[in-house]
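Note to self: keep these together.
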Amino acid sequence: MMDPSSSSAAVPAAAPAVGDGGGGGGGGPAAAVSSAVATASRRFQHLLDRSTPHVGRRWLAFAGVAAAYALRVWFAGGYYIVTYALGIYILNLLIAFLSPQVDPEVAEVLGEGGAALPTRASDEFRPFVRRLPEFKFWYSIVKAFCIAFVLTFFSVFDVPVFWPILLFYWVVLFTVTMKRQILHMIKYRYVPFSFGKQRYNGKRVASADDLTLPKD
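Structure:
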């Protein structure tokens, strides 16, 4: 017969899982850093979203950032390569800001007809859609100035160059690029600005049908 004492042995307790931590610590320092970065990113994006309608204030803040960078370069007396690269990047942003989202020249080559803007009052209204929207243009240029400002604190980027040559080359490049852009505007009849264009205040002009309707 089976010994009764053999069936009364205590069942050993289950061993704690490896990595449990005993108190649910949440993954340690790496998880805490990741959570802090995600929180900071959400708050920063929230501030960007709130600043979207404040066009004047945003560009005023950009003027402050640009002035701070100019003062830094002036007192440092160098970092002309950084400034030249910043100027080239700003020129590329400006061209994208002045260009339509759908290039009429490319559309003609592809046989898609092109998105020509109206040239007569009877034409269909087609608003100008930029390749680079205003907010993204502002954000990119502010970020570029901030990065360039940080680079001025590293001596490895202070390459000795003759800055008048860089300035002359940038002016020539700017002139040629803007001339090409202006000729493109004239050829396809579009203006990337709203100055001088007709605006509608939302008031509806009464029609003949409205005048014949009976009043209560």
